[in-house]
């Protein structure tokens, strides 16, 4: 089969298209004929060598959608449409950057849909991350105010739509003034230009602070985001768009405001189920949710897609089609 193999840690050009053996399916696993997969920021860090335990060469990819090719257990029939996410994909074992992938059956979710594969490919990991961040970590409720730090990312764009559908007021940030209209069109009530310190600007709008913050930039803006919440408000750090994992200095009894709450979301397949995924796909099909796909690449062009994602030009999800 054809696969985009990350041969070693490095720049995007370490990803090379190769012919490799089709995976052999073992007990408790299934073989998926991949139709599409979304790219994720975490895959940049894996490619750069920052994901502990990853051994190269490796076929990356923490998600995919496609059809069942083999299932020794008989749980799924050949041709059943499925999504697979996380569970070690693309890190502990070969993942979705290929024509076929063998994955544990417990990270597989069946669905029915006539949506095109590029749209379906954008959904699994994005939906899991947004749903888990908003509902599990932040426990958002109608009438609350939500600041999305990193609003033009695919996660930020979907989080805004879901939060608005749940009755929240949304403030989204961007570093690029050319993207403000894009955020407003996506449903944001307020857009703030982010220079790394927006707490003063935000409190001009909401003097007591906001109820919740979805932090997608990471440690570069985390301390400032903590200054944006009201007493007993919550900041959830879900993303690391800023590119750094570790904060050199952090003083909990200074950087976290009194009664403020800080959590993280590092979700996996256990945070969704087939019913939630199917309901979301149905909402997309009905037009209740708009999936922002910035650009679709072909499997031969995964290295180019990585470079594009790393350039921060995109205004939505980047998807790769296998044919």
UniProtKB/TrEMBL annotation:
<dbReference type="InterPro" id="IPR011032">
    <property type="entry name" value="GroES-like_sf"/>
</dbReference>
<dbReference type="Pfam" id="PF08240">
    <property type="entry name" value="ADH_N"/>
</dbReference>
<dbReference type="Pfam" id="PF13602">
    <property type="entry name" value="ADH_zinc_N_2"/>
</dbReference>
<dbReference type="InterPro" id="IPR013154">
    <property type="entry name" value="ADH-like_N"/>
</dbReference>
<dbReference type="InterPro" id="IPR036291">
    <property type="entry name" value="NAD(P)-bd_dom_sf"/>
</dbReference>
<feature type="domain" description="Enoyl reductase (ER)">
    <location>
        <begin position="10"/>
        <end position="320"/>
    </location>
</feature>
<keyword id="KW-0521">NADP</keyword>
<dbReference type="InterPro" id="IPR020843">
    <property type="entry name" value="ER"/>
</dbReference>
<keyword id="KW-0560">Oxidoreductase</keyword>
<protein>
    <submittedName>
        <fullName>Zinc-binding alcohol dehydrogenase family protein</fullName>
    </submittedName>
</protein>
